[in-house]
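Quick board copy: two proteins, each given as sequence then tokens.
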Amino acid sequence: MAGQVADVTDTTFDTEVLKSDTPVLVDFWAPWCGPCKMLAPTVEAIATDYAGKLRVVKVNTDESRQSAMNYRIEGIPTLLLFKGGQPVERVVGVLKKDQLAAKIDKHLA
């Protein structure tokens, strides 16, 4: 489905993110995090705009602590862009859709 933001857990992270043929934007978030809620519509818009070119997934850091520790997520929201199983871009905090798109575009070109 276009623009779908999938939930990924510690159990599915390897398959869904690291082994993906498509670049994956991972949104590390938690339900209690106000800035995460502010960023959510931007992340969903990116998922729609980049459907077919980029997968967008969310990792709840309360439930999937191992993934967050593996990538040294210290503050949320943190977005990591993975390409070929490697993190190639890190964004911490809330930013506008065009700012996020610019960071993604340089890796999809």
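And the next:
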Amino acid sequence: MDQLSHLMEGFSLALTPINLVWVVVGCVLGTAVGVLPGLGSAMAVALLLPVTFSLDPVGAFIMFAGIYYGGLFGDSTTAILMNTPGNSTAIASTFEGHRMAKRGRAPQALATAAIGAFTGGLLATILVVFFAPVLAELATVFGPAEYFALAVVAFVATAAVVADSVVKGVAALAIGLAIALVGVDAISGAARYTFGIPSLLDGIDIVVITVGLLALGEVLFIASRIHKDPQATAMKISGRPYLSGKEFREALPAWLRGSAFGLPFGAIPAGGAEIPTFLAFGLERNLDRRRADPQFGTGAIRGLAAPESAANATAGSAMGSLLALGLPTSATAAIMLAAFQQYGMQPGPLLFVRNGELVWALLASLFIGMIVLLVINLPFAPLWAKLLMIPKPYLYAGITVFSALGVYASSGSIFDVAMLTVIGLLGFALRRFGLPLAPVLIAVILGPLAETSLRRTLAISEGDPGALFSSGLTITLYCLLLLGVAWAAYSRLRNRAQVDI
């Protein structure tokens, strides 16, 4: 039980008055930056990195613990209230979270997100404390074939399972893959679908795509429906900043299931928390279809609880992978790695030996930071929700302005603002014709990973497609995929037969 004694020593250092101040400051600043559309948790850490240079290493990383989780809390706030995720990890939270807000349950949605983030982060941090070496070993199991199988599972889960219509899901997936192909090919270096525009050589930034599809697309769609459907923009706010006993009991299993999805993914360099959040969302949607009173599409609390806990569980276990192996498995973790190197430290197996005091103080401060964030966010949920009481023309105009500012701040490119308009029109068209957004987004995020992994696998095997099924892990993933598709098809046929009867 050496871990417990080391953790207690970390708490003794983290609970000093000055370090508690740094945790609270980090939580507040991280949340404030994470709330801004288009910036998010990774940008919060990047922007606030210079602020810590004047602090001693222990104080700096304790402050980073607050920023790290504070940014994640902030990401979901705009996702729920304005349908604008601060980061791609909060995309899945927009679908049911924003519907809850539109039905007057914004404070309850924010409380669900806060408790879910706390649950996922707490379980992940406990896992890191006791099983960091095991998490690090998990990352070494995945090769190109395993990454490709993982991406295929995510594609099919979102296109065929999460979407209401398989045809529409596949069409949306194809649109997302087409967008993902824009830019220079990572393997050959050839330019693809750039139309001779130099600014497209780097592809279309994920911030532009997420903000354009979710925020600007929603603004355009709402604007087109104002006279046809006045209720589409009418929102009443219930001021209850807590969950009722019934809501808590309904959300609790989803928080735990979402955490179970997120925990292993933090140790895998698969691009962040997008996969587990979408998989957790898809599972809850499938479970919802078996209920006598399906709630998805009307603001299902479980559709928000699961992605939120999955995202923070991934972030917590990603910290374990960074500390134990020196492997950054997300953009935020990569910036944290730069912070360690700034202080002359290299994360990895020797970090616990050479800088044990700092590491255990950092892990202790993660626990403290999550408690502070829960205390900060729950009472302020009704205050954040009052943003929705702003007159709708001003609210949606403000969303448009902040979306454009967020995109411009992340790249400094006017061309990206122009692309934001194009992607926003695409988001409007998708809503107009009833195509789901989730397959588009997951294809954009995981498309490059899937393509690169497929081509590397075939290159290593000299073109032998059997290499895609050469390991027990890939076979297991494909078998689970087939079982999931078969079960989804059976469920839909059964539901259709019941409707016919």
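Board note added afterward: The chain is about 75% helix and 0% strand.
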